[in-house]
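Researcher: Please translate sequence to structure tokens.
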Amino acid sequence: MFNILLEKDIDHIISHSGDIFDNLKGKRIFITGGTGFFGKWILETFAKANSDLKLNLEVVILTRNINAFRQNFKYLYNNKIFIFLEGDINNFKFPKDKFDIVIHAATDSNSELYKTNPLLMFDTILNGTRNVLDFAVRNEVKNFLYISSGAVYGKQPCELSLITEDYSGAPELNDINSAYSEGKRAAEMLCVLYSSKYGISVKIARCFAFVGPYLPLSKHFAIGNFMNDYLKDKAIEVKGDGTTVRSYLYSADLVIWLLTILLKGKNCRPYNVGSEIGISIRKLAETISAFSGKSLDVKVMTKLNDQGNTYRYVPCTGRAHNELGLFQTIYINDSIGRTLSFYLAAMQL
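Model: Translation complete:
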């Protein structure tokens, strides 16, 4: 029914979600990106919550490759509440009947796509979102969660320790590396326009950085790369100078935040999702290196930037806390420990 390695975390989600799951009873839900990092966590949560709380959910998941998911996650594929629809976000065949909720989590933030085809990335974000919104209109969806990104703010000023939702900065329009960020901004505008014209209640979650089981370990996520080195008993490589400051919210907290924003957030009002506790990339590598007394070497690959221009990517989450009662409950050391334990246990199965 669900991954037993995540049982403690899913129980944490259920017990810290108030009446959220009561409000999901009997709902038909459509999810894009349901087989990605965020999506797997949402599916695992729905599987256990449906079993424990008798929610009578029906969840349709759009995925580009059903066979790959079936092979790797057979227990989820065979769960009776899930229906898998194979298709591309830009042109999938709309399922029939009404849906109560859409969770639009599909996006391609692959670093290689940044470099090789930023136009395709931009088009996929924008056209894919419009297609999902059209589906929501046609199928009379009333509640739509858009998973956006903290990248919409552009580069966070060094002097700004926490970035708020009303920050008026933006990505550089003359830089092709802004394709992902600007795509997310434009997609948010599409959501607002559809809400105004068609009456869809749109909730916007601007997500920052996260850690937890299912996080890819060999892509462009620094914390995942560091854990991959740790699991292979290799020296941990910091590709930059290590001064960049990020913050990490554990994936169990992430699910609580997303579901709460979906059901209790204000229409078209964006909410930052993440941790306010910043940590430098070098300190993060050292923390993982020293975990459980392992003490692997940490190699910083780039000379220290002495210009005083430390890059930050850390949100202010006061709006989510004050309006929705959301807060971080699992902190970085525990997050790292839980994630490493998951992968170590999975390696032994």
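Researcher: Any highlights?
Model: The CA atoms of residues 51 and 82 lie 13 Å apart.
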